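Morning!

As promised:
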Amino acid sequence: MARMKFLCDADRCIECNACVTACKNEHEVPWGINRRRVITLNDGKPGERSVSMACMHCTDAPCAAVCPVNCFYTTADAVVLHSKDLCIGCGYCFYACPFGAPQYPRVGNFGSRGKMDKCTYCSGGPEVDLSVAEYEKYGSNRLAEGKLPLCAEMCSTKSLLAGDGEMIAQIYKERVIKRGYGSGAWGWKTAYRETIAI
Amino acid sequence: MRHEDETRKDDTGIGRRQFFRTLGGGTAAAAAAVAAVPLTPTEAQAYDPGNTETRSRYRETDHVKAFYRTNGYETLKK
């Protein structure tokens, strides 16, 4: 059984935020929140790195462990989803998540912050596949359409990889063997000369 | 002074300590009565949307294969 994974090739990410925009548009994510974001380390300095982050769909998800209403479940594709009908907006999952994936459409405590929203790996929710109710609550279900998450599919530098974990690991290994990694990567010394080593 | 506060009685004639002792005894009797009633344990159930919604949706369609092919180097293009 294929396990769905995201992998961001930090040597390729140029912080264009196309993945963020694509996700927000595809799922009509409410104002003020993003399911995906680009994090930049050492911004503005030689050797800066950008990584596109969203829900990592953990195997033993801490959000599911702390949820007081048990609204999380894991699909056969190893995607962590949740039911917005059960969510009470308590915010515990936000504190438990090491990636800051759970987001809330409003500011406030407990129920006043609204139902939690997070990356669904473009695979909808517990409603009937490709139904209007599913789209309104969770966004589009591209996996059911035989596609992959849009953030990865439209990455202009092919930095963000998504799909079967074994397949994208193979793609990444092949890249590292071919071009190197970090300061050993192709073009690094042209850009930063030989003074930077990471 | 302190001893006087603890033993002082109000207009009803009941001291503060005596009042709580009386109350504690009553509570213990009530707790014993509740414990005598057999409780039916209710186990917390995790949300289970059913097999239909947790089934695998990933399929290696031509669309997905094209994604792998365009992201990989030469070995995946063969």
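The radius of gyration of chain B is 36 Å.

Hope this helps with the figure draft.
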